[in-house]
Each structure stands twice: as structure tokens, then as C-alpha cells.
Automatic annotation (TrEMBL), chain A:
Residues 1-85 form the HPr domain. GO terms for biological process: phosphoenolpyruvate-dependent sugar phosphotransferase system. Its main location: cytoplasm. General (non sugar-specific) component of the phosphoenolpyruvate-dependent sugar phosphotransferase system (sugar PTS). This major carbohydrate active-transport system catalyzes the phosphorylation of incoming sugar substrates concomitantly with their translocation across the cell membrane. The phosphoryl group from phosphoenolpyruvate (PEP) is transferred to the phosphoryl carrier protein HPr by enzyme I. Phospho-HPr then transfers it to the PTS EIIA domain. Pfam families: PTS-HPr. This is Phosphocarrier protein HPr. It comes from the Bacteria. GO terms for cellular component: cytoplasm. It comes from Planotetraspora mira.
Automatic annotation (TrEMBL), chain B:
NCBIfam families: PTS_I_fam (TIGR01417). Residues 7-16 have a biased composition (Polar residues). Residues 267-540 form the PEP-utilising enzyme C-terminal domain. Phosphoenolpyruvate binds at R305, R341, N454, D455, R465. This is Phosphoenolpyruvate-protein phosphotransferase. The active site is at H203, C502. Residues 49-61 have a biased composition (Basic and acidic residues). Its cofactor is Mg(2+). Keywords: Cytoplasm, Kinase, Magnesium, Metal-binding, Phosphotransferase system, Sugar transport, Transferase, Transport. Gene3D superfamilies: Phosphoenolpyruvate-binding domains, Phosphohistidine domain, PtsI, HPr-binding domain. One of its GO terms (biological process) is phosphoenolpyruvate-dependent sugar phosphotransferase system.
Amino acid sequence: MAERKVSVESEVGLHARPAATFVQTAAKAPFDVTVAKAGGQPVSAKSILSVLALDVRQGESIVISAEGEGADEVLDRLAEIAAAS
Amino acid sequence: MDRRETGSTTPESQEQAPRLLTGTGVSPGSGYGPAFLVVGDIPEPAAGSRHDGDAPAERGRAEQALDDVAADLESRGARAGGEAEEVLGAQAMMARDPGLAVEVGQLIDQGVAAPRAVFEAFGKYRDLLSAAGGYLGERVADLDDIRDRAIALLAGLPMSGVPTSAAVPFVLVAKDLAPADTALLSKDVVAAFVTEQGGPTSHTAILARSMGVPAVVGCAGATTIAQGAAVLVDGSSGRVRLSPDEDEVTAARNADEARRAVLSAVTGPGTTADGHAVPLLANIGGPRDLDAALAAGAEGVGLYRTEFLFLDRETAPTPEEQEAAYRAVFDAFPGGRVVVRTLDAGADKPLAFLPSPGEEPNPALGERGIRMFRRYPDIMAVQLGALARAAAGTAAKAEIMAPMVATVEEAAWFAEACRTAGLENAGIMIEVPSAAIRATDLIEEVDFFSIGTNDLTQYALAADRQVSEVAALQDPWHPAVLDLIGMAAFAATAAGKGCGVCGEAAADPILACVLVGMGVTSLSMSAPALPLVRAALARHTREQCRSAAVGARSATSPAGARAAARAELPELGSLAL
């Protein structure tokens, strides 16, 4: 199981456009991808409703996890999206 | 059997909607077609409703419905483009949410019927979002919209979305219409609009006039019209006739054609019957509106709303981009006037790069128009500079005006800023009652006035334009509004300067005559309104217009003012007004 911990830097948090881009990218992975607030319950990173409901604000940390071939690449890309301001 | 003429009062016929509904006609002409009802509220599917036992088939139906909703949202977005595409695309993602699909599937497997399963599955996310509040709380409405569309599909209910193509143009009937409902509509699809709410400056009214489609707003009982029922709409008188007989439809068509023939017979510059020139100008939002303005015979532009250049973007347009957009409009009217309104932003029209200073519980009374412009001198310097460069090389007469001016000091400040930028003709909009009341002081500082009747009415009557409950107050025929217009026009005339009107009032052919009678020197309106205003003016002398103005201002109500003006304008009948 690979994972990345990143701080969300977008002013709008993981909502609106960043959330859509994040979910669209995760949805392309052929394996499960989850996202959780640090210390919280993980939810599917492919579900826009679940990701929105996490209510991640600017400056908060998230943990993104996946397992499978190419998981590292997907996680790197997702971490990049989440960390973009 | 046709019971129409029998006056039958059997219980059966009492249940039917009445045959004639009346509202306010806000866009002239007659329209006939089957009613298309926009149903805003989809009823909640009954709790405990079960399917017939074939869970896989029921799951398939639910999946199909959600997928259809997503595809429809995406295709609407793709056609609308821009911001709308992004918003609708995000909604489509929600409809395709895999987590949601799992919930719906589980409920159906437990025996819950598809519409109820969709309702309950959405409910969980709805609660999560609304508990979070703020931005997420506002997404609840998006979620409800998707849910209702899916339930409507599953239950065979009419969809809230308006079709964008139709074999026969339909009469669009709604409680009220949102911009999203109407973004993609055209004259080929909609024969007329009828809404239960709204007034002459509602979104529907403005849209209808700009499309040249008849419209009746504030029509009580409109949503009781049966889906698909034949409806004949008269956008002048405000009469909405249900299931009219053939003769009525033919008569209305003939009258409409006669009116159109009369309209096209009057061309050229605006003038009264006795030759008093009243330039007729167009309201535009950018170069894309020029073709319609020129086709309708506009003599220039009376209101160029430059904020459309600034909306829906992250950063301000560059000086070069602005200059090109201004020059394109100037070049379209060599020798004509082009009146440009500087950026009109504020809490009601927020811009990403011009954040409001703070929370404004009452945006209409907050930091907007020239007030906002003064807070951001850089934005203003760039806009005035771009206007000066665009105006320098053109044959049009460029006039620049500021919105929301309330005081002499603001008027003087703006005129000075324009002169510093090299712009000669600086004016102000008369929208705030204080500016109209002290017009004789303000006109000393500027070269012209342009009266914005929509805001002037809103402020004079203390009736928010966005609140439909007070729409009846939002009527420029209120004698108090006419008095304020009269004061501004009188002050400008006395100073030998121009006073135009660029609000929706100028698009009302009867009111246009009254305005000219009060001393207004030019009229600016959305392009489709020009022919009828031109024809109404051409049929009446300046003296008749003056009498109409005196009559209207002597009245004590909007209806009284209208009636008094009509009584002095004998040729309105020949225009079917």
C-alpha cells in the first residue's frame, strides 16, 4: 500500500475545481484510491460527493492511498493536484 | 364537446384552469403554441414505495436515469461553454458518482423502488453537505437539481429542464425562470413566455425582449395551465388565452403581421411626427451585439456595458484586450454616438479580482458602480486609458459615463478623471434619487446625463430588483419615478446638455413618448425594441408627447399614469399597443 501525505494549498480547499480535477484523475486509476483527512476515515477518491463531504480546507493535511501497478504515479499526480495553490 | 361558450358550471369544468389569465405584457407581439410547463418542484417519492421484485431491472433503470441526467448536463454545458460548462460538468460528475450508485443499488436490492432509492441515497450526501455549510451548503441546491431530474425521469414526470429544440415552438410556462433554464433558448423553440412571478425588469422580461419573443409576467395561475394545452399569448395586453379557437388564433396572427408591416414601414433615424429628432440607440454588452443593433437601425450605442468584459474571469482584461473591444464598437458607428459605461461592479456583480471590502447585507446599497471604481484606481486608469486610445482613432463620438453617482463631488471627480485620461465627453448615470433631485448641481460638472430607470426605480421605491415579492413596485410608470426623470431632463435642458434614457423604460413605446415629452433627448434600448419605439414616436408630435407626459405625471398610480398617457397618444391603436 502506497500513500502520500500532503497539505492542501488551494484557497478554496479541496472543493470546486481542485476537487473535480482530483476526482477525475483518481477515477482513471484501475484500482481503488482512497483519501482521508489526517487521522480520519478514508473515502473513495473517485467519488466527488465523498471528497466534497470531507470538507478539506486550505492548510489541512490529507492522506491519499492506493495499491496496484502504477500506484506511485497516480499518487504523485494526485498529491500534486492537492498541493497546488 | 366544447363547453367553452356554454358558461357551464359543472364541477368538472370548475376543476379546469380558467380560459383567460391576465398578467403584465412585457414584450409585445402574439405567440401561440402548446404549453411547456417548467416544473420546479418534483414531489418526494412516497416513503416505503417498493418495486415489483425484479431488483436487477430496477437497478438498471436507476443507473440509466442517472447516466441520462449526467449526459444531458454535459451536453448543455458543452453548448453553453465557459463558466456554465464547468458548473454543469461538476453536476454531471455528481450524477455519475460511484459512491452514490452503490447506495442506490443497495436500497433497490432491499426492495425500495428506484425513485425512492435515488431520493434516499441523495439524502445522505445532502445532509453531509448542508451540515458543512458555506460553499458546500450552497452545493445542496445542485444536488437537489440532479436528484429531481433523475426522479422525474424515473417517475415519468415532466423535467425541470427546458428543451432546446422543438418541432413546434412552445409557450414556456413557469413560476419564474432562472438564467440557467434559458441560456440556450432561441426564437425557433419558444413562441412566448408566461411566468407567474416577475415584473417588467425580471430576468424573463429582459430576455424575452432581447430575443424578440412575446412575454407575459406576473400572471397569476399560470402554472395551473395543463402541460401541452394550446395557449395564445398577447405580450402587449398581458392576456393569456387557453385553448383558443381557430378564429382567435388567426385574428391574432393577422394583427401581429399587420403590426410588423407597420413597424418595418418606419425606418431611419428616430423622430417625432413633427420632425423633432430623438436619436434611437442600442444597449449592448460587447462587440457580439453589434449586428443586431445595426440590423434594427440603431443610430449609435446608448449603453455599452463594459462589465461583460470583466465577468467570469480570474484576472482583469489587459489594456490591449480592452482597447480592441472598445474600438470594435466605436468603428461600427462612424459619425454616431457611442456611450460607454465604465465598469459597474459590486457585491451584486462580484469580480474575482475586485473583492468587496466586506460583507454587504444589502448589496444594492453597498460599494458598487463608481464607489467600487474609486477603491481600485488602477483598474479605472487602465479602462479610461484604453477608452481614450480606442476613441482617438475613430470617427464615432465617444462618450464615457459612470454608474451609481450620488453626489456632486463624485460627478466632479469622474469628469476630472476622464479629462486627465484625454476623454472629452464625460457624463454620469442618473440612478440614485439624490442625483436626480440635485440634477441642476450635477449637470454643472459633466457633459451629459443618462438615466438608468431600472436602478432609479429600485432606489426611488425602495424595492429590490431581485425580490419578486416587491416586483409590483419595480415599475418605472410610478409617478415618483417620472418626477425624478423630469427633474434630471429639465436640468440638462436648461444647461443646454443632453439627457438620455438607457433603462428598460426606453423600450416601452408608450413610456418612450412620455420621456420625450419630458425633455429626454435620446433613447437607448435592447435592439429588438427599437422598431416599435421608432414607430410610436413617428406617429406622434412632440406636443402630443408633452401632453402625455403632463397627464402621466398628474396621475397618482402607475396604472393611472399609463392610462393618462394613452389618452393623449391617439395613434397607439394602429400599432396594436
